[in-house]
Amino acid sequence: MSLIDLKNELCYHQLRDRYIDLPSTGATVNEAAEVLHVDPDAIAKSLVLNVNDQPIVIVLSGNARLDNHHFKEEFHVRPHLLPPDEVQQSTGYPVGGVNPIGLENDLPVYLDTSLRGLLWLYPAAGDEYHALKLSLTELTELSHPVRWVKVSK
């Protein structure tokens, strides 16, 4: 999905005003939190991993860390992040801009339980200079997750 398609999707759901142009890079959790003036936990980071030769997207809160043991319990394999070039090819977005909404290929999206309890979430919006402001309900409805998982510590 291009940035134009993403904006159209937001317009369709009457959320166009939630698209944020960042004045500087928000490629990392700390950079995004600083430029948005929010707690790092509110940053919804999207990790693209390889599970049995298929890319998947897992969305975690900003300070949450992927836990190998929990991941293996959930997916029955060790976690392996995709290299940046494969992330771009699989999602249509570069590392630092991966958004779980409208991925280039219809990848499975999983939401980590670390997102629960946060009032507002700020996922990247296609590149490191754009973000979204969404409630957990909106993120869930727009990303069409396969299910909730507990893969963080």
Account of the 3D structure:
With 153 residues, the protein is of the alpha/beta class. It is 27% helix and 21% strand. It is built from five helices and seven strands; from the N terminus they run αβαββααβββαβ. The strands form two sheets. The chain has a five-stranded mixed β-sheet with strand order 5-2-3-4-7. Strands 1-6 form a two-stranded antiparallel ribbon. β2 (43-51) and β3 (54-61) form a beta hairpin. It is globular, with a radius of gyration of 14 Å. The relative contact order is 0.24.
Identify low-pLDDT runs.
none
Strand content: 15-25%
Q: Which range best describes the helical content: under 10%, 10-25%, 25-40%, 40-55%, 55-70% or over 70%?
A: 25-40%
Q: What spatial form do the alpha-carbon principal axes imply?
A: globular
The average pLDDT score comes to: 93
- Please trace the helix and strand order, writing H or E for each element: HEHEEHHEEEHE
Estimated structural class: alpha/beta
**Sheet with the most strands?**
5 strands, mixed
DSSP strand tally: 7
Distance between the termini: 31 Å
Determine the number of helices (DSSP H or I, runs of at least 4 residues).
Answer: 5
Can you list the strand order of the major beta sheet? 5-2-3-4-7
Alpha carbon gyration radius: 14 Å
